[in-house]
From TrEMBL:
Protein name listed in UniProt: Transcriptional activatory protein AadR
Organism: Methylobacterium symbioticum
Taxonomic lineage: Bacteria, Pseudomonadati, Pseudomonadota, Alphaproteobacteria, Hyphomicrobiales
UniProt cross-references to Gene3D superfamilies, sorted A to Z: Jelly Rolls, Winged helix-like DNA-binding domain superfamily/Winged helix DNA-binding domain
Keyword vocabulary terms for this entry: DNA-binding, Transcription, Transcription regulation
Domain HTH crp-type: 150-224
Amino acid sequence: MAGESAAALVVRKLARMVPLAAADRAALEQLCARSRRHGPHSELLRQGEVPDAAIVVLQGFAGRYRHRPSGACQILAHLLPGDLCAANLVYPRPMDHTVGTLSSCTVARIPRESYLAMVEQHPALARALDLARLVDEAVAREWMVSIGRRSARERLAHLFCELHARLAQVGLTSGYAFDLHLTQVGLSDTTALTSVHVNRTLRDMRREGLIELKGRRFVIQDPERLRAIAEFDGAYLEAAEVSPGDGMPDGRA
């Protein structure tokens, strides 16, 4: 957003999970101050290499993905503005997937030693990043359910609800509208559907008045019906700190 610092979105995201002191925010600001613009399909962390930096997405969409020898791609996760990816940094080992841009992106790189010093010197940031990883794992489980048990229509509906919810958390929505930095090929590689199937499903959803897509501007026109189709419950995207013993009234976790 205009007038905001480079790290504003990642600070906003992490502060939703754990209260951050001024020193915590300043540390992130300093580490994200130097950024670089990358075009679409740029590899940021390569499969097989031991990463030497964390990646912070400041603008655009990036993702984790795997390519098969045939060239087919499966996107494993979306990295949206405000997301920090510290894959294999604490316990260095070769990457089993690639992290790359899905659109033009502005990205900050935090060198491994600087990242480790940050989480050691700022316990609140370390806790917030741990909680963010729990959300990442919950998102991965939802994607597994989508690919295994949801129809094409349900998969896309759930993905659009999820993207809206995640972008809203960092202030990048206007009502039910947001910028969708994914092509139909990107949607296909995310949902494990063919591009033809994605195209047909999007056409049907537009015809039914569920969504509107003009250029990259995406609008959910009927949020209640889209959530009903997806059976969407966004609780898995929330991970604020709770006290030990908090949970269901009857003692269930």
